[in-house]
Amino acid sequence: MLLAATAVAFAITEGAKLDKSPIAGTFVTPLFSPAGTTHPNAEVRFRLRTRERLTVWIQSSDGKRVTTLLLPRTAHRGQRFDLVWDGFSRSGTIQPDGNYYPVVKLLRSHRTIVLPSRMVLDTEPPTIGVKHPQYPILSPDGDGHGDTFRFHYTVDKPAHAILAARGRRVLFTLGQKQSGELVWDGKVRNSQGLLVRARPGRYLLTISAQDRAGNVAKGVPFAIAQVRYVVLARRRVVVRPGGRFFLRVSTDAPSVHWRLNRASGVERAGTLRFRAPRKAGVYHLYVTVGSHASVCAVVVA
User: Fold this and answer.
1) Phi and psi, residue 162, nearest 5°
2) Whether the Cβ atoms of residue 281 and residue 254 lie closer than 8 Å to each other
3) Where is 62: in which H helix or E strand?
4) Fewer CB under 10 Å: which end of the chain, C or N?
5) Structural domains for the chain
6) What is the pLDDT of residues 193-223, one digit of tens each?
């Protein structure tokens, strides 16, 4: 008799373990931020296996109810629920950062189910660091000389690094490493939002970061980059007929092409030496690197 009673008790216990939960197909957003840009809300989804009268609320990690997602109502078997919590309390303020849990109260069967999947509310933006100030010079013409600007960054939690030039985003890392290297290839966004090669000039670079919850750090200016292709030290030269003159050229290319009156040639970048035309007048000296050129007026008098 004792063995039979034990067997019956064991069978009842094991049968209870095999009972299916009255809710199924559950999904809970694991991480969100009401102050973020990508995950401002948390979703709670599930379906009922039986006809029930239920209510749903959110509770904090210490068991305190913070808001009600679903007032008591009767639902039929198989009904799905797609509930959303925006992270705000009933008084209209954002709840403190921390862990929260959805609670499903089944009024007919007198069961309270706390979903084990926590949702983390995180409104703290990441902090990103980079050496500053920096003053890089680059010529992004694709010739392999000074085409890019590389710099190292660190961030205090997993996040996407963001680089902006003149306030417009040019880089957004796919990964969320806490340290790494960014490479700016000298491209900027035009008025249509397309990435194009930057024109000569100075560009203020700012760095930011976006964490997994969608919080975006305030951009930190850290570099003034100068984009140049070929720059002449002077825009105007006065020289006597047939006289010699010198002109400094700044470029990352090892050599440049030049043309003055009917003469032309290729010289090593640096200080260029020329002989002026023998006839008085105003001439134009063109110095070219790839598809970029700079001009200097040569006044022969």
Assistant:
1) -130, 130
2) no
3) none
4) N
5) 2-121 (2.60.40.2550), 128-227 (2.60.40.10), 231-300 (2.60.40.10)
6) 999 999 999 999 999 999 999 999 999 999 9
- Cα dihedral: 122, 124, 129, 132 (round 10): 150
CA distance 59 to 70: 13
Q: Please state, in angstroms and rounded to a whole number, the distance separating the CA atoms of residues 152 and 87.
A: 35
pLDDT digits (tens, 9 = 90+) for 167-201: 999 999 999 999 999 999 999 999 899 999 999 99
pLDDT in tens, 92-116: 889 999 999 999 999 999 999 999 9
pLDDT of 3 above 60: no
Take residue 224 and report the two structure tokens written for it.
Answer: 């003034």
Q: Which of 70, 73, 76, 80 minimizes the C-alpha distance to 103?
A: 70
* Ordered strands of the 220-227 beta sheet: 137-138, 220-227, 201-211, 159-165, 168-172
Q: Which residue has the tokens 């990508």?
A: 38
Q: How many Å separate Cα 79 from the centre of its chain? A: 39
Q: Tell the residue number behind the tokens 């001439």, with chain if given.
A: 283
DSSP 92-115: S-BPPSEEEEEEEEETTTTEEEE-
> CA triplet 253, 254, 256: central angle to 5 degrees?
75
CA distance linking residue 288 with residue 292, whole number of Å: 6
Residue 30 tokens read as 């694991």
Instruction: Give the max Cα distance, the chain.
Output: 129
What DSSP state is assigned to residue 151? E
β-pairing, 236-239 vs 292-300, is parallel
pTM for this one? 0.78
- Amino acid in position 37: T
| Amino acid making up residue 248 | R
